[in-house]
Specification:
CATH architecture of the largest domain: 3-Layer(aba) Sandwich
Helix content: 25-40%
Strand content: 15-25%
Oligomer: single chain
Distance between the termini: 71 Å
Structural class: alpha/beta
CATH class of the largest domain: Alpha Beta
Largest sheet: 6 strands, parallel
Radius of gyration: 24 Å
Length: 552
């Protein structure tokens, strides 16, 4: 096919290179073959990882965005490819993760005819993405892609979806210069910082809550050092446990599913809450019950990069739209003229008590399993998970001691953890990357083990197999107790060791707590992707909860 030297497809790829994208996660499709061909010319700059399902590719891109702070790039074909990838877009939206999904599209000339796999992507993704658009002029390709980078990175970060009509990709992309995008960031007004200082100086029971995305290492270190120095207790929002070291003397724990009751009470008792980056949504606020709208107008200082989040649920004493890092650096200069070290020490003691191992009925104690991970892995090890009751053990009993070591979907997306682990290991091949997955969770995207084997991405997955959809079973037993009421939650699982080996990976089975260290060691040293099949009891449905107890 004779085509211009600077096709729109090539201009698109050049824009990715200019903006530091070094990986693209995809499932190939004929609708965007021109882009794949352009990527073939920059193999030394961008690694293309072809996945086995669009959900896996989209989850990998989302995880890449979390780890690097750059938009994760996913490419899929039109129609079914795009709808399969929508789960990753939803996670990026809920988790405030920068991401760009490129979707192959039918030719512009055929739009509106009900053509093969035709979809209106603005309509389908309009409620999930920050911006959903279509390139309608080849010479505006650079403009649209640069705007996508800016949109994904500015304000509350999130996903962008760009449809790529097949005929546009082959046309002349024009001479537009390509520049790296520098996202705009808002800082706090000095007068606002002074107001925060004044409120903090009068607070008797203050609490700092950190969450959200877009944090830089210097800012998290500064806010952690400052809060520890003045004894200001710090809680982290749902699945944001890696923002500061959990060993800090003022660390109070995380606000998520199954939180420490003493931390929940501490939040309720606080006469001043400074929240930076956290949306204070349903899960962190325990179904919107932990805070009181009548009180937050007098007690809540809310700082978030997205102005639409301020006052969305909670009236505020003070509110500001600002970049999390810039806000944290500014607040870290405050001298309130007092400290709350006794409260900070008590909060941290409550946290330490809450993460002590608990007893179980079965032969595998997940609290000991997770504690062992923390003992043998380096502080920079990346832990990933999807959704399910198995994750409660990980979130409660594992301490994060370094930034960018947790990849977990606040969206509650099943199947997220394993693709996220592959992305994490591809970015950091020198670090341990361990996925903790439930049996139901893993089989949502477990076929991506083929991707890990193909590209030599040696992740370890621990499949926690209790033979049930645990979260749903727990709620089922709570609402409709009794063995005769169990329906649609039991699982008949494969031999996961044989499953792993069929793909060329390593597999090992473990049925007792005391055997887990050897199984983990074998998996970590296998020299290839590895799977630990960990058999647990459904009776131990969650920490300190049993099915028998729920029924009674």
């Amino acid at each position: 096919m004779t085509q211009p030297a600077n096709t729109a497809a090539r201009r698109l790829v050049e824009t990715l290179v200019m903006n530091g994208i070094d990986r693209v996660f995809c499932v190939p499709g004929e609708s965007y073959l021109a882009v794949l061909d352009a990527l073939a010319d920059v193999r030394d700059k961008i690694q293309v990882i072809a996945c086995r399902h669009e959900a896996g590719a989209a989850n990998m891109a989302e995880a890449y965005g979390k780890l690097t702070g750059k938009p994760g790039v996913c490419m899929v074909t039109r129609g079914p490819g795009a709808t399969h990838a929508s789960i990753g877009v939803h996670t990026a939206h809920q988790d405030s993760t920068p991401m760009i999904l490129f979707v192959g599209q039918i030719a512009l000339a055929d739009r509106g005819r009900g053509a093969f796999q035709e979809v209106d992507y603005r309509e389908v993704f309009g409620g999930l993405a920050k911006w959903a658009t279509e390139i309608e002029s080849p010479q505006r390709t650079v403009e649209v892609v640069e705007r996508a980078f800016a949109t994904a990175l500015q304000g509350r970060m999130g996903p962008v979806v760009i449809a790529l009509p097949e005929d546009i990709l082959h046309a002349d992309g024009g001479p537009a210069p390509i520049r790296p995008v520098t996202p705009a960031k808002s800082a706090l007004d000095p007068a606002f910082v002074e107001q925060v200082r004044a409120e903090l100086a009068h607070a008797e029971h203050p609490l700092l809550v950190l969450g959200g995305s877009g944090w830089g290492d210097a800012a998290t270190t500064a806010i952690a050092d400052w809060s520890e120095k003045i004894g200001l207790p710090v809680a982290l929002s749902f699945r944001r446990k890696d923002l500061i070291s959990n060993d800090r003397s003022n660390y109070a724990g995380d606000l998520g599913l199954g939180p420490n009751p003493k931390l929940v009470q501490r939040v309720k008792d606080a006469d001043l809450i400074i929240a930076i980056g956290a949306r204070l949504g349903e899960n962190p606020t325990q179904g919107y019950t932990m805070l009181d709208r009548a009180r937050t107008a007098d007690t809540l200082i809310h700082i978030h990069p997205g102005p639409e989040e301020l006052g969305r649920v909670w009236p505020t004493l003070l509110g500001a739209a600002a970049d999390c890092s810039l806000a944290a650096l500014a607040l870290s200069t405050i001298d309130p003229g007092r400290n709350w070290k006794a409260q900070a020490e008590a909060a941290h003691a409550d946290f330490e008590a809450f993460i002590q191992p608990v007893s179980v009925t079965g032969a595998v104690n997940m609290s000991h399993v997770i504690r062992h991970l923390g003992e043998v892995l380096g502080d920079d090890a990346i832990l990933t998970n999807g959704a399910g009751n198995f994750a409660a053990w990980l979130h409660r009993f594992h301490k994060h001691r370094a930034r960018r070591t947790q990849l977990a979907p606040t969206s509650g997306a099943m199947g997220y953890g394993y693709p996220a682990a592959i992305a994490g290991k591809s970015v950091h091949p020198d670090r341990d990357v361990i996925c903790i997955a439930g049996d139901g969770d893993y089989l949502m995207t477990g076929q991506e083990i083929a991707t890990a084997v193909q590209y030599g991405i040696n992740v370890v997955v621990v499949v926690v197999d209790n033979g049930t959809y645990g979260t749903i079973r727990m709620h089922q037993e709570g609402h409709y107790p009794g063995a005769d009421r169990v329906i649609a939650t039991d699982l008949r699982n494969p031999d996961f060791v044989a499953y792993a080996e069929a793909f060329g990976a390593f597999g090992v089975r473990c049925e007792r707590t005391e055997d887990f260290p050897a199984a983990l060691d074998a998996a970590r040293n296998a020299g290839r992707p590895a799977l630990v099949h960990l058999i647990t009891s459904a009776e131990d449905i969650a920490p300190n909860r049993t099915i028998t107890g729920l029924r009674s």
